[in-house]
Amino acid sequence: MAYIKIFPIKVTDKKALDYITNPDKTDEKLLVSGFGCSPETADLEFAMTREQTKKNGMNKGDNLAFHLIHSFKPGETDAETAHRLGQQFADEVLKGKYEYVISTHVDNSIPAEIKITCGVQKLIPPIFR
């Protein structure tokens, strides 16, 4: 049975993003992907999104991002399946409105799929909705 933990990020999302995309934990970054942003520049892209929402009066709190951990029992799934399940979960919950980076850690016997999602919605021009 998988379980999920969610933590707010209030100070810096860069450190969390660097941690979850660590090549030693993610099979040399093979198990790292992003939605609405590039994993390599996600901290900058999240900051730009926060700045855009602030300018448009949509700033709704002081959480820069959210750190989600989705863990599985040993032997319950393999890393690729865990990664795919994590992407499906993020897509269903975030509904394409938030940028995120997802990684799957394989540095121990328990695959853990980890997401960092921007704390504010990305502004989408009405023409693209």
Automatic annotation (TrEMBL):
Span of domain MobA/VirD2-like nuclease: 19-108
Q: Name one Pfam family in it.
A: Relaxase
InterPro entries reported for this sequence:
Endonuclease_MobA/VirD2
Task: List the protein's name.
Answer: Relaxase/Mobilisation nuclease domain protein
